[in-house]
Design goal:
about 25% helix; alpha+beta; seven-stranded mixed sheet; six-stranded mixed sheet
């Protein structure tokens, strides 16, 4: 009897050791994108920022500016954190920033200063003075190159004056046109570097707005989608096995022509061929999720897409795991007409943003 019990005990112990040996460990990195909504400093610069000064329409004082920085940093440090991921994002693509200085102020806030974020930023020709940028944790990512690629687009009909609704006229992100009919908008930012020794390419986007109407402005975003695809193809020419992440506020949903045809993004992983793109946020939109509300309808304009090389099942190198929208209760309007919307800046309250940040996880098995 004792021998039988001993044999049973050995079997149980060996089963436990085998199960323990089969538990896999993974390195996890969060890639986030966040539209900061009008992150302007208080200095009057020659970039149409008069509204965001102490004497401007927003009465944008140093106190309000610093509160905005604290609010954003509170969100950033928590994006994507859960039981599996305790750390703040390794990457944060950002839009609606006035200049490099506001990012420098942001990463120096108490919530972020110890994370030692680096900055990649270029000034865009956008007439409202807003740019895109990338924050990255220096201990994990080492950039090797970065470049801004201009989106050169023109108004279609020189002789026709576009008609705008009153809501369009109030759009804070109006499309600006010059005498030669060029529309000056945000550049695409391409950053290449090594994440824990593995090469990663990141494209940060903020495509033209819907000012003037979705249909009339769609060709501008379609051009942005084609440009993003062209940038990806140029990366593939250098390295056919390149891992590419495309992120941004696209001012279009995952179902729009700019994304589906311009970028060529697919709903399902099984549809993605070599050099193709997978967009996890298309299914999330179908499921009723939203990163913002545009004219009283929820949608996901903020998206992160990954190349075919990031959706493989071999986790000996970094691969896409899953995606999410970070929308905790403290970031949400709780009363009034816009209950349930992102808690944005208002006349008597410095909010967070009119967008919720989005994120994806990259994981790699650790031996």
């Amino acid at each position: 009897m004792r021998i039988k019990n001993f044999i049973v005990l050995l079997f149980v112990l060996s089963s436990m050791l085998e199960a323990k040996a089969q538990v896999k460990k993974y390195a996890v990195h969060t890639v986030a994108f966040y539209n900061f909504e009008n992150l302007f400093d208080t200095i009057n610069n020659p970039n149409n920022d008069e509204e965001w000064t102490p004497t401007g329409a927003q009465n944008w004082t140093s106190k309000k500016y610093n509160q905005k920085l604290q609010n954003l940093s509170r969100v950033i440090m928590q994006i994507g954190t859960n039981d599996q991921q305790k750390e703040a994002p390794t990457f944060i693509g950002c839009s609606e920033i006035e200049n490099r200085g506001v990012l420098e102020d942001l990463i120096k806030t108490p919530n972020l200063v110890n994370l030692d974020y680096g900055i990649v930023h270029f000034d865009s020709p956008d007439k409202r003075g807003i740019d895109v940028g990338l924050l990255y944790q220096k201990k994990y990512f080492k950039p090797t190159s970065f470049v801004n690629i201009p989106l050169i687009i023109y108004r279609g009909n020189n002789n026709e004056k576009d008609k705008e609704t009153e809501e369009d006229k109030a759009d804070k992100d109006k499309i600006e046109v010059t005498k030669d009919n060029r529309i000056y908008t945000r550049d695409i930012l391409l950053v290449t570097g090594f994440l824990d020794g593995e090469e990663i390419n990141l494209l940060v986007n903020h495509w033209p707005s819907r000012s003037g109407g979705e249909k009339k402005s769609s060709p501008f975003r379609e051009a942005a989608g084609r440009l993003a695809r062209k940038v990806m193809d140029s990366v593939y020419k250098v390295n056919p096995n390149a891992k590419i992440i495309l992120m941004g506020d696209l001012n279009d949903g995952a179902y729009n022509k700019s994304v589906k045809e311009g970028v060529g993004a697919k709903l399902k992983k099984s549809e993605v061929k070599q050099f193709g793109v997978y967009n996890p946020f298309e299914q999330m939109a179908k499921d009723g999720n939203a990163s913002l509300f545009y004219r009283d309808a929820g949608d996901i304009f903020d998206q992160i897409m990954v190349s075919e090389t990031l959706i493989k099942t071999d986790f000996s190198s970094f691969q896409y795991w899953k995606a999410g929208i970070y929308n905790k209760p403290f970031m949400i309007q709780t009363t009034g007409q816009y209950k349930g919307y992102p808690l944005r800046h208002q006349a008597n309250e410095v909010g967070f943003s009119d967008h919720f940040p989005v994120y994806v996880y990259l994981i790699k098995e650790v031996k």
